[in-house]
Amino acid sequence: xLEIRFHGRGGQGAVVATILLAKAFFRAGxxxxxxxxxxxxxxxxxxxxxxxxxxxxxxxxxxxxxPDHVVVLDTTLLEAIDVTRGLKPTGWILLNAPAPPADxxxxxxxxxxxxxxxxxxxxxxxxxxxxxxxxxxxMGAFARVLGAPPMDAVEGAIEEEIPEKLEVNIEAxxxxxxxxxxxxx
Length: 185
What we know:
Elements: E1 2-9, H1 14-27, E2 31-38, E3 46-54, E4 69-72, H2 77-80, E5 92-96, E6 111-115, H3 117-123, H4 135-146, H5 151-161, H6 166-179, E7 181-182
Parallel strand pairs: 1-4, 4-5, 5-6
Antiparallel strand pairs: 1-3, 2-3, 6-7
Helix pairs in contact: 1-4, 1-5, 4-6, 5-6
């Protein structure tokens, strides 16, 4: 079983990203769970969301304390919380960032990848200039980093759930898939 923790801020689409990825993995033949953990429910507040997936039925019904991978939609959270909390030593950290953080040595026990999902979302007019919605771009990048789900499953989940700006959301996911970079990718 794989467990993935998403860190974002309210309004960026972290919860929606886990739901859409769950649907994409389900399309690819996985059993899935997706659930959020909210603190203060307001735009800009830190949000955590979780995704579990396995080829066998998932019977566990608890929070995820030791994720295999972490996805960070907003790098300002790197200073506010420990995104590596409980992360397994070989896990991926996928950052929404144009480059690795200056202090990337603190992530030396993990595999680090990054993509400028904010720039992609802004160029595709997803959200606003002050509140870009980066979830579909991060989904594409995540699919590339993990090697799953296949992009056609990601696109199918987007088509099923996001009728507004469908084509640009799919383009954002594809572009992030192609543009993700990493120290060990």
